[in-house]
Known about the structure:
59% of the residues lie in helices and 10% in strands. The chain is α/β, with parallel strands linked by helices. It has a domain at 89-247 and 257-289: P-loop containing nucleotide triphosphate hydrolases (Rossmann fold, 3-Layer(aba) Sandwich). It has a 5-stranded parallel sheet, sandwiched between helices. The longest helix is centred in the first third of the chain and has 69 residues, at 2-70. The relative contact order is 0.11.
Amino acid sequence: MRRCRGISVLVCLLLTTGFVLLTSKLILVEDDEAYDDFSAGAVENSYQSEDFYETEATTAARTTKTYKMQKYVTPSLAELGERGIPPETNDHVLMVTRVPGAGAELLVLILQRLQGFNAFKHIRLPPGDEGTLSNLQQELLVEEVTSIIRQEAIPLSFDGDVRFLNFSAFGRQAPTYISLVRDPLDPKTLERERNNEWALEQAKANVLRWYPIVGVLDLMDETLNSLERAFPYFFEGASLIYDKLRPKKKNTFSSTLKPGTKKRLRSLLKTEVKFYEWIKSRLLNGTTENG
């Protein structure tokens, strides 16, 4: 009897010990799995954190790049109007006026080549009469240009068979005018109509009011340097473009004119020569208010 009781006690002890060992092992296994899960989660979170910072850096870089590409983007005329009375001229809209025979097509060609690089748009207005426009023609052209400006949100440049349009006379904001002149003693300009003193003073007044820069064909390096400083969003890189277009042989017509011929031409074209010298001095002095 005692022997059977002893065997029963021993079996109970063995069963209890086995149960305790089994329970401990299960707890250890669960702890190991929980630790593995935690470690995996921590690593995953670590990668997610790295991705987050990488995404933020990428976003910042992308934003910086976008800003760099769009730093010259300007509001439309309609948006400017909503903010108050816009200035008389728009610095981000250029109009190249072409003086016949003065080489303004060279400026147009440079603008056409730079528009993709500098992220602006150059628009050639439809060809028209090179003579004086009637009031109705002027108004229609002003409305056409204004309509284009309203639809665009990037810097624009225009050129066309237009000598000058007074946008303010029709209640519209004017573009900023630029142009190019040529030595009046150059044979290529001799067929142009002559001007009087009144026309000279009127031309000066228009230049001072509407033309920050009037370039000189014989001083293209100085002209482009001035334009690059004043309007980098249009003319950055213009000098490099001009180097590829630069004529191999410089025009030396003045040196080939006989002294007597040159003197007579200066007398005949004294008004034009005076205006040309004034424009030249204004450009070289680097001021838009040189009277």
